[in-house]
Every structure is written in C-alpha cells, then in structure tokens.
C-alpha cells in the first residue's frame, strides 16, 4: 500500500504543494472581503496566519518521522512545506506591524517589553528566516556541515512558535496543546534517530 502511494507521489509536482499552500491565504482574503471575520478583524487575521504557519511547520516536521515509521516518502515536498510555513510566519508578522501597530516602532518596542510572548515569536521568526534563506543547493554546498548544524534550529524555533501561540491565546485550549505535544513528540523521535538532531527543509533527501 505504501509503495503504491509512494509511486503515485513521485508523479505529483512540487508546484501542487505550493498551490495548496495558497488555499488558506485565499480563504482568509475572501473572508476579509466578505466581512466574515469576527468583531476584531485584525486579531483574526493575525491569528489565522499564525495558526496556518504552525500547521505547515508541523507538516514539515512530520516528513522525516513518517518516512522512518511508515516508509511514506514526502521528502520531495519538504522544502516547499518549510518555505510555505515561513511565508505565513512573515505574513503574520507583517499583519502585526501594519494593521496592529501601524508602523509605530516605539509602540512595538513597548509592546515587546510588556508582552514577553512577543519575544518568543520574534526569536522563532529569526530562526525560521535563517532556515528559509539557506534553503537552497548553493547554501548546502557553500556551508557544508555547518548547514546541518544551522538547520537544527528548526526544533527550538518550533517550540518557541508554539509557546508564543499558546501565550498569545491566553487560554489552554486542547487543540493548541495537542499541536504543542506533537512538536515535542517529533523532537523526541529525532533525538532517538541516528545522528541526533539533524534536520533541514533545504533540499529533498538532504538533512535527513
């Protein structure tokens, strides 16, 4: 069964993943234009973008465990999943800067000091930015072993992003707690894996 699925997946173009990645953004734009957001549209836009980023981050983290545990091979799509994740993180941050803070940089700094969960989010963004910028063959060739070391940042970035989300919600709902638990499970599985924490979303088949 898995072998048949893997053969089918080899014929799925990577651009299809990118196209699927646009669906949540398209739905958000549609809901915004139709006035289908809640009483606080800015908050809803920020939360939906951040939540979608978490989903794609989890999908990226799941690629290697799925291969090792079930032999389902999604490696061809890992780079796209990781970059889509970063795109939603960047949109989430941009929504906060533009719609919430209106480019008031001094107010942003005061907010960061007053709300420590923003620090967690900023740190996660910087880590994911480093992964996105180096997610290409040139960086792999140029950096060598350092590329693998850099891409170990995915797990602290994932944990920081999840804590940022939970703290921002100010409620301990079961769904975000479940996703946070999944991140910890993926981390545990990677610790058990051969070679320790070696991961990247750079190029399919690299970084294991």
Which helices and strands appear, and what pairs or packs with what?
Elements: H1 2-9, H2 14-21, H3 23-34, H4 41-70, H5 78-100, H6 105-114, H7 117-133, H8 137-143, H9 145-150, H10 154-169, H11 174-192
Helix pairs in contact: 3-4, 4-5, 4-10, 4-11, 5-7, 7-10, 10-11
What descriptive keywords fit this protein?
single chain, mainly alpha, 0% strand, globular, 208 residues
Overview of this structure, please?
- The structure is a single chain.
- It is globular, with a radius of gyration of 18 Å.
- It has helices at about 1-10, 15-20, 25-35, 40-70, 80-100, 105-115, 115-135, 135-145, 145-150, 155-170, 175-190.
- Helix 4 (about 40-70) packs antiparallel against helix 10 (about 155-170) and helix 5 crosses helix 7 (about 115-135).
- It has about 210 residues and is mainly α.
- Mean pLDDT is about 90; it is low at about 195-200 and about 205-208.
């Amino acid at each position: 069964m898995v072998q048949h699925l893997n053969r089918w997946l080899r014929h799925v173009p990577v651009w299809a993943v990118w196209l699927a990645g646009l669906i949540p953004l398209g739905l958000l734009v549609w809901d915004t234009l139709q006035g289908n957001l809640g009483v606080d549209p800015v908050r809803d836009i920020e939360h939906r973008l951040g939540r979608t980023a978490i989903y794609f981050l989890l999908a990226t983290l799941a690629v290697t465990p799925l291969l090792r545990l079930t032999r389902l091979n999604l490696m061809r799509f890992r780079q796209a999943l990781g970059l889509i994740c970063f795109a939603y993180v960047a949109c989430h941050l941009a929504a906060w800067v533009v719609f919430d803070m209106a480019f008031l940089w001094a107010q942003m700094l005061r907010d960061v000091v007053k709300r420590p969960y923003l620090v967690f989010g900023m740190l996660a963004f910087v880590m994911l930015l480093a992964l996105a910028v180096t997610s290409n063959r040139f960086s792999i060739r140029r950096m060598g072993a350092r590329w693998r070391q850099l891409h170990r940042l995915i797990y602290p970035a994932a944990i920081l992003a999840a804590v940022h989300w939970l703290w921002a919600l100010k409620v301990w709902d079961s769904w975000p707690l479940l996703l946070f638990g999944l991140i910890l499970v993926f981390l545990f599985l990677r610790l058990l894996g051969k070679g320790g924490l070696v991961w990247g979303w750079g190029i399919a088949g690299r970084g294991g």
